[in-house]
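Sample 3 of the quickstart, ligand 2-acetamido-2-deoxy-beta-D-glucopyranose:
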Amino acid sequence: MIGSRNRAQPRASRPWSFSGMDYSESKKKRNFIGKIVLAAVLTVLCIYMLKNSSGFSTPSLFSRHEPGVTHVLVTGGAGFIGSHAALRLLKDSYRVTIVDNLSRGNLGAIKVLQEQFPEPGRLQFIYADLGDAKAVNKIFAENAFDAVMHFAAVAYVGESTLEPLRYYHNITSNTLVVLEAMAAHGVNTLIYSSTCATYGEPAKMPITEETPQAPINPYGKAKKMAEDIILDFSKNSDMAVMILRYFNVIGSDPDGRLGEAPRPELREHGRISGACFDAALGIIPGLKVKGTDYNTADGTCIRDYIDVTDLVDAHVKALAKAKPGKVGIYNVGTGKGRSVKEFVDACKKATGVDIKVDFLSRRPGDYAEVYSDPSKINRELNWTAQYTDLQESLQIAWKWQKLHQNGYRSSLTSSF
Ligand SMILES: *[C@@H]1O[C@H](CO)[C@@H](O)[C@H](O)[C@H]1NC(C)=O
Ligand SMILES: *[C@@H]1O[C@H](CO)[C@@H](O)[C@H](O)[C@H]1NC(C)=O
Ligand SMILES: *[C@@H]1O[C@H](CO)[C@@H](O)[C@H](O)[C@H]1NC(C)=O
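Result:
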């Protein structure tokens, strides 16, 4: 574990991610004291959570099925989408167990959820690695899950081309581990996080669920393989499966409790919304729009941006409609494409910062236009995107970003 963190270190020292000149001595000192306080807080928190996790408390509410209570295992629940999903499930009175090894997720998100739902039997956090089949089996043996929402994954297209094994390992092979544990312990409902990247570069827009899947990068391929494993398995079992193929996820909790906080060293792989906020905060000098000569109305790429609040709503609806022996595959998007130029304008308005934009030539491997046809999920799950105002979604996310410039860390230290 420690090894993997160390390996990630060198990338953190990219020049633009830390602009040392801005920091005065006193700020450095404050930062240092802040770090010590943070370390102390984290230690206490870890002990607290360990005490509350299944291993320590005798017979836990999480270990037996309770009529009328649906216990959902949320893998990757400390991550961006997983934490938002956990929050929604808890609000809707589900019992939630989060499994996350915090390699990409945030302990701060778990802390927020624990504070919101401290009652016994609501939320449990288990620190574990889904690559560790023995650990996963133990978790399934000790807990009575009714359903699994499998979010945990690595999810950067660029990174996937640089480190394909990391993607096949942590997406495809970890999904297999989860599926085997589900089969071995009779957990029958799976809601799987997939992606529009499994379609590759379709000739025809919009993308329906019938659009042939021909992924063009290891991220999309790893997700497609995981889908195939799930589908093959479901043919000979009575598993209830829902596969949700996400388009470009943006936004954050409208009440400002949760946000998106990628590891600093991963920012360079990040998504356009992250880059927009980093530019608005002055962490990076500006935005680089790559490609202005695509065959689209304004020449920039077109994507379908789905707000995370709508996305987790799709998960809850999928869970409610999941049926044994049935598979549902759904695109989750708004059905409306937005150009990068539109996105940048919305970002400037949402942040109130006149972000500097450089228009550059195309990035290899980018496709001009991707947007969904969400009519199947509208029809079958009665789901429709509600947060379709790009500027509003970005405004909500920006509010959190501004208050949490060090991700969840700043909220942890400021509470002391
Ligand atoms: C977390 O899990 C991944 C995926 O299996 C694993 O490879 C990685 O080393 C783990 N990292 C930590 C910090 O435990
Ligand atoms: C993913 O898998 C690789 C093995 O290929 C491992 O080294 C890495 O730490 C894993 N975890 C993450 C979060 O990438
Ligand atoms: C569909 O959802 C809407 C709200 O989004 C709700 O008012 C309506 O009753 C739902 N219809 C069905 C058939 O559940």
